[in-house]
Amino acid sequence: MSGFVEKPEPIQVPGLVHLHTGKVRELYQNEAGELVMVASDRMSAYDWVLPSEIPDKGRVLTQLSLWWFDQLADLAPNHVISTDVPPGAPADWEGRTLICKSLAMVPVECVARGYLAGSGLLEYKESRTVCGLALPEGLENGSELPAPIFTPATKAAVGEHDENVSYEEVARQVGADTAARLRQATLAVYGRARDVARERGLILADTKFEFGFETRDGEPGTLVLADEVLTPDSSRFWPAAEWQPGRAQPSFDKQYVRDWLTSAASGWDRASEQPPPPLPAEVVAATRAKYIEAYERLTGTPWA
Ligand SMILES: Nc1ncnc2c1ncn2[C@@H]1O[C@H](COP(=O)(O)OP(=O)(O)O)[C@@H](O)[C@H]1O
Ligand SMILES: [Mg+2]
Protein backbone atom coordinates (compact mmCIF):
# COMPACT_ATOMS: atom_id res chain seq x y z
CA MET A 1 0.00 0.00 0.00
CA SER A 2 1.14 3.50 -0.73
CA GLY A 3 0.08 6.76 -2.35
CA PHE A 4 -1.70 9.71 -0.81
CA VAL A 5 -2.75 9.32 2.82
CA GLU A 6 -5.27 12.08 2.06
CA LYS A 7 -5.82 12.83 -1.61
CA PRO A 8 -5.70 16.63 -2.00
CA GLU A 9 -8.54 18.41 -3.78
CA PRO A 10 -6.97 20.75 -6.37
CA ILE A 11 -7.92 24.42 -6.18
CA GLN A 12 -9.86 25.58 -9.24
CA VAL A 13 -8.80 28.90 -10.75
CA PRO A 14 -10.70 30.56 -13.60
CA GLY A 15 -8.66 30.42 -16.81
CA LEU A 16 -6.57 27.48 -15.63
CA VAL A 17 -7.22 23.86 -16.48
CA HIS A 18 -6.03 21.46 -13.80
CA LEU A 19 -3.90 18.76 -15.44
CA HIS A 20 -2.36 16.66 -12.73
CA THR A 21 -1.74 16.24 -9.01
CA GLY A 22 1.86 15.14 -8.43
CA LYS A 23 3.31 14.09 -5.12
CA VAL A 24 4.29 17.68 -4.39
CA ARG A 25 3.06 19.84 -7.28
CA GLU A 26 -0.25 20.78 -8.85
CA LEU A 27 -0.02 21.25 -12.60
CA TYR A 28 -2.33 23.49 -14.61
CA GLN A 29 -2.42 24.85 -18.12
CA ASN A 30 -3.11 28.52 -18.69
CA GLU A 31 -4.89 30.07 -21.65
CA ALA A 32 -1.56 30.64 -23.42
CA GLY A 33 -0.94 26.88 -23.28
CA GLU A 34 1.85 27.29 -20.71
CA LEU A 35 2.34 24.99 -17.76
CA VAL A 36 1.54 26.46 -14.34
CA MET A 37 3.43 24.50 -11.70
CA VAL A 38 2.47 25.14 -8.07
CA ALA A 39 4.64 23.53 -5.39
CA SER A 40 2.61 22.59 -2.31
CA ASP A 41 3.99 21.97 1.18
CA ARG A 42 3.34 18.25 0.83
CA MET A 43 6.03 15.81 1.80
CA SER A 44 6.55 12.27 0.61
CA ALA A 45 8.48 9.48 2.30
CA TYR A 46 8.57 5.73 1.78
CA ASP A 47 6.31 6.07 -1.28
CA TRP A 48 3.60 7.79 0.76
CA VAL A 49 2.51 11.41 0.54
CA LEU A 50 2.25 12.16 4.25
CA PRO A 51 -0.84 13.58 5.97
CA SER A 52 1.23 16.51 7.40
CA GLU A 53 2.58 19.48 5.49
CA ILE A 54 5.87 21.30 6.07
CA PRO A 55 5.03 25.04 6.07
CA ASP A 56 6.88 26.97 3.33
CA LYS A 57 8.47 23.85 1.85
CA GLY A 58 6.96 24.48 -1.60
CA ARG A 59 8.34 28.02 -1.55
CA VAL A 60 11.80 26.85 -0.54
CA LEU A 61 11.79 24.28 -3.37
CA THR A 62 10.64 26.85 -5.90
CA GLN A 63 13.05 29.61 -4.84
CA LEU A 64 15.98 27.21 -4.67
CA SER A 65 15.19 25.80 -8.12
CA LEU A 66 15.05 29.33 -9.52
CA TRP A 67 18.42 30.15 -7.97
CA TRP A 68 19.95 27.02 -9.48
CA PHE A 69 18.41 27.63 -12.92
CA ASP A 70 20.32 30.94 -12.86
CA GLN A 71 23.59 29.29 -11.86
CA LEU A 72 23.15 26.79 -14.70
CA ALA A 73 21.79 29.08 -17.40
CA ASP A 74 24.90 28.87 -19.58
CA LEU A 75 24.97 25.04 -19.40
CA ALA A 76 21.36 24.08 -19.94
CA PRO A 77 18.27 25.91 -21.17
CA ASN A 78 15.43 25.64 -18.62
CA HIS A 79 11.65 25.69 -18.70
CA VAL A 80 11.00 28.83 -16.64
CA ILE A 81 8.93 31.60 -18.25
CA SER A 82 7.98 33.63 -15.17
CA THR A 83 7.01 33.53 -11.52
CA ASP A 84 3.80 35.53 -11.96
CA VAL A 85 0.83 34.34 -9.93
CA PRO A 86 -2.09 33.92 -12.37
CA PRO A 87 -4.97 36.38 -11.88
CA GLY A 88 -7.60 34.98 -9.53
CA ALA A 89 -5.25 32.47 -7.90
CA PRO A 90 -4.91 32.36 -4.09
CA ALA A 91 -2.37 34.75 -2.53
CA ASP A 92 -0.69 31.68 -1.06
CA TRP A 93 0.56 30.80 -4.58
CA GLU A 94 3.09 33.66 -4.35
CA GLY A 95 6.61 32.26 -4.28
CA ARG A 96 5.53 28.74 -5.09
CA THR A 97 4.34 29.22 -8.67
CA LEU A 98 6.34 28.77 -11.85
CA ILE A 99 4.95 29.47 -15.29
CA CYS A 100 6.87 27.06 -17.51
CA LYS A 101 7.19 25.94 -21.08
CA SER A 102 4.97 22.94 -21.53
CA LEU A 103 7.41 20.26 -22.66
CA ALA A 104 7.18 16.75 -24.02
CA MET A 105 8.79 15.16 -20.97
CA VAL A 106 11.32 12.38 -21.46
CA PRO A 107 10.08 9.58 -19.16
CA VAL A 108 13.45 9.03 -17.52
CA GLU A 109 14.64 10.11 -14.07
CA CYS A 110 18.12 11.38 -14.91
CA VAL A 111 20.17 10.66 -11.81
CA ALA A 112 23.81 11.62 -11.36
CA ARG A 113 25.79 10.18 -8.48
CA GLY A 114 29.17 11.31 -7.24
CA TYR A 115 28.96 9.39 -3.95
CA LEU A 116 27.57 6.07 -2.86
CA ALA A 117 24.20 6.21 -1.01
CA GLY A 118 20.59 5.08 -1.22
CA SER A 119 19.64 2.62 -3.95
CA GLY A 120 23.17 2.91 -5.38
CA LEU A 121 24.64 1.63 -2.14
CA LEU A 122 22.15 -1.26 -2.00
CA GLU A 123 23.00 -2.38 -5.53
CA TYR A 124 26.73 -1.97 -4.93
CA LYS A 125 26.58 -4.23 -1.86
CA GLU A 126 24.84 -6.91 -3.94
CA SER A 127 26.90 -6.79 -7.09
CA ARG A 128 29.65 -4.11 -6.99
CA THR A 129 27.67 -2.25 -9.64
CA VAL A 130 25.27 0.72 -9.78
CA CYS A 131 22.76 0.58 -12.66
CA GLY A 132 24.94 -2.14 -14.11
CA LEU A 133 28.09 0.06 -14.07
CA ALA A 134 31.05 -1.73 -12.49
CA LEU A 135 32.67 0.08 -9.55
CA PRO A 136 35.91 -0.61 -7.67
CA GLU A 137 36.03 -2.84 -4.57
CA GLY A 138 36.19 -1.33 -1.12
CA LEU A 139 33.66 1.51 -1.40
CA GLU A 140 31.55 2.20 1.68
CA ASN A 141 28.35 4.05 2.57
CA GLY A 142 29.09 7.66 1.54
CA SER A 143 32.31 6.99 -0.40
CA GLU A 144 33.15 9.32 -3.26
CA LEU A 145 33.05 7.51 -6.60
CA PRO A 146 36.11 7.58 -8.90
CA ALA A 147 34.05 9.79 -11.23
CA PRO A 148 30.37 10.85 -11.28
CA ILE A 149 28.07 8.36 -13.00
CA PHE A 150 24.73 8.60 -14.81
CA THR A 151 22.31 6.14 -13.18
CA PRO A 152 18.89 6.56 -14.80
CA ALA A 153 15.62 5.30 -13.39
CA THR A 154 12.22 4.80 -14.91
CA LYS A 155 9.58 7.19 -13.61
CA ALA A 156 6.95 5.45 -11.46
CA ALA A 157 3.36 6.54 -10.78
CA VAL A 158 2.51 8.14 -7.41
CA GLY A 159 2.92 5.48 -4.75
CA GLU A 160 5.24 3.35 -6.80
CA HIS A 161 8.97 2.89 -6.68
CA ASP A 162 11.25 4.38 -9.32
CA GLU A 163 13.32 1.56 -10.74
CA ASN A 164 16.98 1.86 -11.64
CA VAL A 165 17.68 0.85 -15.23
CA SER A 166 20.80 0.43 -17.32
CA TYR A 167 21.91 3.03 -19.83
CA GLU A 168 21.28 0.47 -22.56
CA GLU A 169 17.66 0.15 -21.43
CA VAL A 170 17.23 3.94 -21.59
CA ALA A 171 18.71 3.94 -25.09
CA ARG A 172 16.21 1.25 -26.09
CA GLN A 173 13.31 3.25 -24.66
CA VAL A 174 14.10 6.77 -25.87
CA GLY A 175 16.64 6.19 -28.66
CA ALA A 176 20.43 6.22 -28.59
CA ASP A 177 20.72 9.89 -29.50
CA THR A 178 18.36 11.13 -26.78
CA ALA A 179 19.99 8.80 -24.22
CA ALA A 180 23.41 10.22 -25.04
CA ARG A 181 22.11 13.79 -24.75
CA LEU A 182 20.47 13.03 -21.40
CA ARG A 183 23.66 11.53 -20.00
CA GLN A 184 25.82 14.37 -21.26
CA ALA A 185 23.50 17.08 -19.88
CA THR A 186 22.97 15.30 -16.55
CA LEU A 187 26.68 14.90 -15.89
CA ALA A 188 27.49 18.44 -17.03
CA VAL A 189 24.88 19.98 -14.74
CA TYR A 190 25.82 17.71 -11.84
CA GLY A 191 29.49 18.68 -12.22
CA ARG A 192 28.72 22.37 -12.08
CA ALA A 193 26.31 22.02 -9.17
CA ARG A 194 28.72 19.85 -7.20
CA ASP A 195 31.39 22.53 -7.52
CA VAL A 196 29.00 25.31 -6.48
CA ALA A 197 27.82 23.28 -3.47
CA ARG A 198 31.37 22.43 -2.47
CA GLU A 199 32.29 26.13 -2.30
CA ARG A 200 29.49 26.43 0.24
CA GLY A 201 30.66 23.53 2.37
CA LEU A 202 28.09 21.05 1.06
CA ILE A 203 28.60 17.77 -0.74
CA LEU A 204 26.10 17.10 -3.53
CA ALA A 205 26.08 13.31 -3.22
CA ASP A 206 23.50 12.69 -5.93
CA THR A 207 20.63 14.37 -7.69
CA LYS A 208 17.79 13.76 -10.10
CA PHE A 209 16.85 15.83 -13.14
CA GLU A 210 13.97 15.67 -15.57
CA PHE A 211 14.28 16.91 -19.13
CA GLY A 212 11.72 17.59 -21.82
CA PHE A 213 11.71 18.51 -25.48
CA GLU A 214 10.45 21.84 -26.64
CA THR A 215 8.48 21.01 -29.75
CA ARG A 216 8.65 23.35 -32.73
CA ASP A 217 6.30 22.86 -35.67
CA GLY A 218 5.52 19.41 -34.30
CA GLU A 219 9.20 18.44 -34.39
CA PRO A 220 11.07 17.70 -31.15
CA GLY A 221 13.78 20.31 -30.78
CA THR A 222 15.84 21.54 -27.85
CA LEU A 223 16.32 19.41 -24.76
CA VAL A 224 15.26 21.60 -21.82
CA LEU A 225 15.93 21.18 -18.09
CA ALA A 226 12.52 20.98 -16.39
CA ASP A 227 10.78 20.21 -13.09
CA GLU A 228 12.59 21.23 -9.89
CA VAL A 229 16.38 21.21 -9.73
CA LEU A 230 18.90 20.57 -6.98
CA THR A 231 16.52 20.82 -4.05
CA PRO A 232 16.55 18.66 -0.90
CA ASP A 233 13.62 16.72 -2.42
CA SER A 234 15.58 15.78 -5.55
CA SER A 235 19.11 15.63 -4.14
CA ARG A 236 21.25 14.45 -1.26
CA PHE A 237 23.24 17.31 0.27
CA TRP A 238 25.66 16.51 3.08
CA PRO A 239 27.57 18.97 5.27
CA ALA A 240 31.16 18.47 4.03
CA ALA A 241 32.61 19.04 7.50
CA GLU A 242 30.79 16.00 8.87
CA TRP A 243 31.35 13.68 5.90
CA GLN A 244 32.70 10.33 7.02
CA PRO A 245 32.38 7.31 4.72
CA GLY A 246 31.39 4.08 6.43
CA ARG A 247 28.18 5.36 8.00
CA ALA A 248 24.99 7.13 6.99
CA GLN A 249 25.72 10.85 6.47
CA PRO A 250 23.73 13.61 8.15
CA SER A 251 21.79 15.25 5.35
CA PHE A 252 19.43 18.03 4.35
CA ASP A 253 16.82 15.74 2.89
CA LYS A 254 13.90 13.99 4.53
CA GLN A 255 16.12 11.88 6.76
CA TYR A 256 14.61 13.44 9.86
CA VAL A 257 11.11 12.43 8.81
CA ARG A 258 12.20 8.97 7.69
CA ASP A 259 13.99 8.36 10.98
CA TRP A 260 10.93 9.36 12.99
CA LEU A 261 8.55 7.27 10.84
CA THR A 262 10.68 4.16 11.32
CA SER A 263 11.24 4.80 15.05
CA ALA A 264 9.13 3.20 17.77
CA ALA A 265 7.71 6.67 18.57
CA SER A 266 5.65 6.78 15.36
CA GLY A 267 3.94 3.46 16.06
CA TRP A 268 3.98 2.87 12.28
CA ASP A 269 5.02 -0.36 10.65
CA ARG A 270 6.42 0.36 7.21
CA ALA A 271 5.70 -3.18 6.06
CA SER A 272 2.04 -2.99 7.10
CA GLU A 273 -0.94 -1.89 5.01
CA GLN A 274 -1.42 1.08 7.34
CA PRO A 275 -0.83 4.62 6.06
CA PRO A 276 1.80 6.61 7.99
CA PRO A 277 0.54 8.82 10.87
CA PRO A 278 0.67 12.63 11.02
CA LEU A 279 4.04 14.07 12.05
CA PRO A 280 4.45 15.59 15.52
CA ALA A 281 4.92 19.38 15.58
CA GLU A 282 8.60 19.10 16.50
CA VAL A 283 9.34 16.85 13.50
CA VAL A 284 7.53 19.32 11.23
CA ALA A 285 9.50 22.25 12.71
CA ALA A 286 12.86 20.49 12.49
CA THR A 287 12.20 19.46 8.88
CA ARG A 288 11.15 22.97 7.92
CA ALA A 289 14.36 24.30 9.50
CA LYS A 290 16.45 21.82 7.46
CA TYR A 291 14.90 22.89 4.16
CA ILE A 292 15.46 26.54 5.04
CA GLU A 293 19.02 25.86 6.12
CA ALA A 294 19.73 24.15 2.79
CA TYR A 295 18.36 27.22 0.97
CA GLU A 296 20.39 29.64 3.07
CA ARG A 297 23.64 27.72 2.87
CA LEU A 298 23.44 27.24 -0.88
CA THR A 299 22.27 30.69 -1.90
CA GLY A 300 24.00 32.63 0.87
CA THR A 301 20.74 34.56 1.32
CA PRO A 302 18.62 34.59 4.51
CA TRP A 303 15.14 33.07 4.07
CA ALA A 304 12.79 36.05 4.12
N1 LIG B 1 8.13 21.88 -18.23
C1 LIG B 1 7.36 20.79 -17.97
N2 LIG B 1 6.46 20.35 -18.88
C2 LIG B 1 5.67 19.26 -18.60
N3 LIG B 1 5.71 18.57 -17.44
C3 LIG B 1 6.60 18.98 -16.49
C4 LIG B 1 7.48 20.09 -16.71
N4 LIG B 1 8.26 20.25 -15.61
C5 LIG B 1 7.89 19.28 -14.74
N5 LIG B 1 6.91 18.51 -15.26
C6 LIG B 1 6.21 17.39 -14.59
O1 LIG B 1 5.50 17.97 -13.50
C7 LIG B 1 5.39 17.07 -12.42
C8 LIG B 1 5.90 17.77 -11.15
O2 LIG B 1 5.12 17.45 -10.04
P1 LIG B 1 5.65 16.57 -8.83
O3 LIG B 1 4.69 16.74 -7.73
O4 LIG B 1 7.10 16.87 -8.58
O5 LIG B 1 5.49 15.16 -9.51
P2 LIG B 1 6.08 13.73 -9.13
O6 LIG B 1 5.09 13.09 -8.22
O7 LIG B 1 6.13 13.05 -10.48
O8 LIG B 1 7.45 13.95 -8.52
C9 LIG B 1 6.23 15.86 -12.80
O9 LIG B 1 5.38 14.85 -13.29
C10 LIG B 1 7.12 16.37 -13.94
O10 LIG B 1 7.49 15.35 -14.82
MG1 LIG C 1 8.73 15.52 -8.38
From TrEMBL:
Key words, A-Z: ATP-binding, Ligase, Nucleotide-binding, Purine biosynthesis
Pathway entry: Purine metabolism; IMP biosynthesis via de novo pathway; 5-amino-1-(5-phospho-D-ribosyl)imidazole-4-carboxamide from 5-amino-1-(5-phospho-D-ribosyl)imidazole-4-carboxylate: step 1/2
Domain SAICAR synthetase/ADE2 N-terminal intervals: 19-274
CDD domains reported in the protein's UniProt record: SAICAR_synt_Sc
Presence of the UniProt keyword Zinc-finger in the record: no
Pfam families reported for this sequence: SAICAR_synt (PF01259)
EC number, UniProt record: 6.3.2.6
Substrates-to-products reaction catalysed: 5-amino-1-(5-phospho-D-ribosyl)imidazole-4-carboxylate + L-aspartate + ATP = (2S)-2-[5-amino-1-(5-phospho-beta-D-ribosyl)imidazole-4-carboxamido]succinate + ADP + phosphate + 2 H(+)
Keyword set includes Magnesium: no
A molecular function GO annotation: phosphoribosylaminoimidazolesuccinocarboxamide synthase activity
Family that this chain belongs to: Belongs to the SAICAR synthetase family.
The name this protein goes by in its record: Phosphoribosylaminoimidazole-succinocarboxamide synthase
